[in-house]
Design brief:
The structure holds 3 protein chains of 3 kinds.
Chain A lengths: L1 E10 L2 E11 L4 E5 L6 H9 L5 E9 L2 E2 L5 H6 L2 E4 L6 E5 H15 L7 H15 L9 E2 L5 H15 L3 E5 L7 H14 L5 E5 L3 H6 L4 E6 L2 E6 L1 H17 L1
Parallel strand pairs in A: 3-10, 3-11, 6-9, 9-10
Antiparallel strand pairs in A: 1-2, 1-4, 4-5, 7-8, 11-12
Chain B lengths: L1 H10 L2 H9 L15 H5 L3 E2 L9 E3 L2 E3 L7 E4 L5 H11 L3 H8 L3 E7 L4 E9 L5 E11 L4 E8 L8 E11 L4 E8 L5 E11 L4 E8 L4 E10 L5 E10 L4 E10 L5 E10 L4 E10 L7 E10 L5 E10 L5 E9 L3 H9 L4 H17 L5 H14 L4 H10 L2
Parallel strand pairs in B: 1-7, 2-6, 5-7, 6-8, 7-9, 8-10, 9-11, 10-12, 11-13, 12-14, 13-15, 14-16, 15-17, 16-18, 17-19, 18-20
Antiparallel strand pairs in B: 2-3, 4-5
Chain C lengths: L2 H8 L13 E3 L6 H10 L4 H15 L23 E3 L14 H9 L13 E7 L2 E5 L2 H7 L2 E4 H7 L1 H7 L10 H9 L4 E5 L8 E7 L10 E6 L4 E9 L6 E4 L2 E6 L4 E8 L11 E12 L5 E8 L4 E4 L2 E4 L5 E10 L4 E4 L2 E4 L5 E11 L3 E10 L7 E11 L4 E10 L5 E10 L2 H9 L4 H17 L4 H15 L5
Parallel strand pairs in C: 3-7, 6-8, 7-9, 8-11, 9-12, 10-13, 11-13, 12-14, 13-15, 13-16, 14-17, 15-18, 16-19, 17-20, 18-21, 19-21, 20-22, 21-23, 22-24
Antiparallel strand pairs in C: 1-2, 3-4, 5-6
Helix pairs in contact in C: 1-11, 2-3, 3-8, 6-7, 9-10, 10-11
The chains are: A alpha/beta, B alpha/beta, C alpha/beta.
Bound molecules: adenosine-5'-triphosphate and magnesium ion (MG).
Adenosine-5'-triphosphate binds next to strand 2 and helix 1 of chain A.
Amino acid sequence: MLSIQNLHARVGDKPILKGINLEIKTGEIHAIMGPNGSGKSTLSSVLAGRDDYEVTDGEVIYQGQNLLELEPEERAWAGVFLSFQYPVEIPGVKNIYLLKAAVNAVREHRGQPELKAGEFLKLVREKLKVMQMDEAFLHRNVNEGFSGGEKKRNEILQMQLLEPTLALLDETDSGLDVDALRIVGEGINRMRSPDRSVLLVTHYQRLLDVVKPDFVHVLAQGEIKLSGDHTLAQRLEREGYEGIEAA
Amino acid sequence: MSGFTAWLADAEDTHAMKAIAVGLPTKRVESWKYVPTRSLARTTWKQADPQGVEQFALTAGSFINVPTLDGLSVTGPDLLPGEQRRLNKMSEAHGFALTQAALEHSRLILTVGKTASVALNLHHIANQASSAGFAALVIRVSPGAQLTLIEQFDRTTVEQANLSSLRCLITLGRDARVTHVRFQAANSHAHVFTNLDVECGEHASYRLQTIEFGSKLARSDIYVALAGKEAQASVNGLAITNGSQYHDTHLAIDHVVGDTKSEMTFRNMVDGKGEATFNGRVLIRKDSQRSGTEQSIANLLMSDSARVNPKPELEIYADDVTASHGCTVGSLNQTELFYLKSRGLSEADARAFLQYAFAEKIVEEIEDPEIRDLVETQLLGELTHGELIAELKESVDV
Amino acid sequence: MSQQEIDQLVDQDYKYGFVTDIESDTLPPGLNEDVIREISTRKGEPEWLLEWRLEAYAKWLTMTPPDWAHVDYPPIDFQSISYFSAPKKQGDGPQSLDEVDPALIDTYNKLGIPLEEQKMLAGVAVDAVFDSVSVVTTFKEKLHEAGVVFCPLSEAVHSHPELVKKFLGAVIPQNDNYYAALNSAVFSDGSFVYIPKGVRCPMELSTYFRINQQNTGQFERTLIVAEEGSYVSYLEGCTAPQRDENQLHAAVVELVAETDAEIKYSTVQNWFAGDDDGKGGIYNFVTKRGECRGDRSKISWTQLETGSAITWKYPSCVLIGADSVGEFYSVAVAGKKQQADTGTKMIHIGPRTRSTIISKGISTARGQNAYRGLVKVLPGAVDARNFTQCDSLLIGDQCGAHTFPYVEAEEPSAQLEHEATTSKVSDDQLFYLRTRGMTEEDALNMVVNGFCKEVFQKLPMEFAVEAEALLGITLEGAVG
Ligand SMILES: Nc1ncnc2c1ncn2[C@@H]1O[C@H](COP(=O)(O)OP(=O)(O)OP(=O)(O)O)[C@@H](O)[C@H]1O
Ligand SMILES: [Mg+2]
């Protein structure tokens, strides 16, 4: 589904990604862990098409096409979804406007019929329930004044509505209380399917207990230093990055 | 002031003579620094003739169909000394202000009775080419009374330059409350001048919302005096300036006494070859202790030829106060655009969303649902890709 | 600075208020073409410069004093001012310290200016301007080796005529404004700095200005040119004796930064402020402007303005070169009956030009302090950025703090941000510090110093200390 080869990216003059190689097959869940500032968010942002980062080398092939050539919205239409580490507040835009506009934009490009208001509301309400979010969130401005955890739930709500084929979840577990962690984790598990892949950035084992990854990678200093199965995460939790890097 | 000279020569009062002597303000007059006076000076203006309409309206410098409402009375014709003084001060500002005074065609004095609650809807209607109308409106809001005043500048089909000038005095008695909405969507040949002078008594509260979409040239001079303890004023405004429009708001809030609060929020969105000026001044006088003011001005430049001149001013002579202002100029926020696009919105739709959001911050504050809907509908018409949002509103707002 | 030092400092009044008893050569008051000719003759100037002065004078006669500033003073009688005063001396000007009148050296020592090379702050070259004339420039030799020219402007007219001719008035034209025109006609002396291509000036350069003579105006003119890839840091300090009548100071400073060059210009202005009732004091009407002509060039203004009865000054940057940078860091204090109207102009012309404005205004006693600034972005200044922050602190209920930021934006990709706050010193902060054992005055000093930190950090090390001390003196008696 996704093949990243020798990916280099920088911000201004500062190189951040220094040769990332990663293969994600359909249906797999990959977790990326790594110290603060190692480039995890940079990687997910580059995949989603944020242009603050300049790709200086390498290639990303997604479902047979060159992902890096696509505009952010084209990636969204093609099924790429990024859950932001810091979801953006958009004062003045109602959450529900964004949700409906996004859902229909994506549907249109998938050749699906537009959802009528009634159908859409029904769908949203269903997902709200899953995320245990109050309907009032729909009528508030996008992420404006949401608590940290509420923002993350809102991201997963969007994901459920957009039904991506490749979900990039950047620290979606950070800032969540115990219950929310479970809800978000289950939200992700619900999306699990043989034709959908997930790239999960996280610092903690907790989420990985709920969403069991097929592979775990350690990203440090802009490179993937180590890969393994889900036991690697447990080792990291015990030994920290220092122990791993020394080994 | 070529366009006015002949006309003023007939007027023969002292204001007119002074106006001829002083001439239209030039760039050297600080408060008129950015105003393009060319179309004003070049047009040969003539007094407009009133034409029949059905609503309460100001047309051709005359008020017609003044409504009879409970708690509202037409008073006058005499001004109170304080009102006279305020009008005089208004006329002395510069040559154009003198002209406004000299050519004033009519004056309406309204009183909102004690503890009455009145809603008044005034339409401004321009209906003749090269015509100009000048009028004054004086409103006395008695203690404890409430007034909702909605002014609407209707988009008419006049194909040539037209001008309307309204000088307005509003006096709020103790505990009075006024909500004032101005929605200016005049046609693209209109020159709209508004001078508004508001005085708030003790514990009175004045709230103004001003939305400017229309006209070729619009200039508003707004002065709010917080003259009684615990008076408060809140002014927010939005100007969408497009084509070759020029919008200019000069707003001053004067904390005459202590324990007063004010707040101003203004947003300019400029596109095409438009130019917008906003000058927001807050004065906290000596001894006006325990006063507070907050100012926020945001400006969005949407095109290469757009121009904006914001200026938030604080003039503070008392120490126990809190005062702050913020002012930003920029184009659409890149992170917000990216966020929307990463959710599948096209560039054009994402831009429309953010423009709408920028404006909506002001529009959503309008309490009266009817006028708010009207403003919102026209707002969407002003945006290049407003259709998507219009549709969304239609479908998911309940 | 230690508490002890602060204590010592707050115990004094304007300590620079002495008059030096020195024989001087002063032109009688009055201004006309003959006076200008006389100034030019005494300085042995070439004909072109006299012409230039006369041209400026003709322009000045047609101009009117600016009236838009938030200051108030009676009209100045320009005929009652003397336009030239020089300490009497033999010969053509001092060649070394030995030739300088000992009384003068003494004056500078009292001012704390380390004129004698032995006592010199490490690495600071000093040019001292006394009334109208530059009396001594130190460290000439070392600078010469580096190829740096640092000398009185009057000397540069002779030693580097082509440079002076090329750059004089290049940034601030004669008729830029009323006081700049006056300065162009009668300017007395000032510093000239030229940093050749690729040279990093090996030491801080510094000029001290002092008005000594009664009824004299001081009209110095400074010109700094930094060629491609060069760097210079320059500091000026100003004092004047305590006198009952007002004295006029109308200076002009022009800076030119070529490609990749950087000029850092710092000012510690402590002209006599007048007494508590506003009697006496300097009218400080100054025009300062720098042009970032080359790509990636940078001009940075840092100022501490504590003195003067009236300050009217807006050090500006014209950002022409792509990616050029302008900065303005200012602390302005208005106490007594002082009036300050100061700020900056940042004119963005080139693409990706950036500017930062940090202004801290402090008002005490009956002082009136106004920030006035303009950020202008012309079409084509693609991706220009400005950040402005002006904070005002009010100490006492008789003073005023005012903010007049102008913005004129004509470029959609520009991003400008302005923030301002006005408040009094927080009682909570004062109380907190006092519960920790500080006197009210010390606590105030500490809070105010904290308020100014951002700006002081931008001053060259040696002067940051001086700046804090000066602030301490100025605030003396502000509480209670
Ligand atoms: N816009 C930017 N400007 C400058 N530096 C940046 C920018 N974006 C990222 N960086 C730097 O790049 C490095 C990698 O950042 P990134 O956000 O990818 O880290 P991360 O691995 O996600 O860290 P964390 O675990 O803390 O979220 C950091 O050193 C960061 O400071
Ligand atoms: Mg991160």
